Amino acid sequence: MRYWYCLIGLVMVLPAAAQEDPHIRKGNRYYREGQFDKALSEYQRAKETPKNASDPALNYNLGNTLFRLQSFDEAAEAYNNSLSNRQQGEEQQHTYYNKGVALSRGKKLEASVEAYKNALRLDPGDQDARINLQKALFELKRQQPRPEDQEDQQQHEPDENEQEERPQPPGSLSKKQAEQLLRALSQREQQVQQKIQQLRNRGGMRQEKDW
Asked: What domains are there in the chain, each with its CATH number?
């Protein structure tokens, strides 16, 4: 039983001619052993041969390997290459399913929904594809803001006038109050300096000593 967003991890069998390629054989072996970095290297080298580059099975296996390495966007692209090269029947259905899983893991939910739908068109009895489709739709809907949430946000978002009229917290001063206070302090300081100067002029204030 495959679980939510779980890959069909089988290695697809290539035609006899392609299986003669040593890089493909090594890639398949490394994949089965869980050595995905080495499998990726071998599959990529196999694709350098023109006759292998468009092979649907090789691209499918490459997609599975990239998925295991958590390169989900590249895996989805490899599955696309596999689908565009005359896949049929069960192989095509598996590829659509895996493409949906890769897109889901890559947070491309809208595209994953289409991939799951294509998988179900080919096999309406695939319960795992149906479950994944339902969950992808649920996640997609959950991420979209509800109309009432948008209305609440607009109602509670204050305009510039409201922000200016908002009462100040206790103990804080508005900009206007602060300016008035600074002016009053400046005037008071000037008055004190004037009184000190007057006392000095009258000789009524002793000078401090320099020690």
From this structure: 16-145 (1.25.40.10)
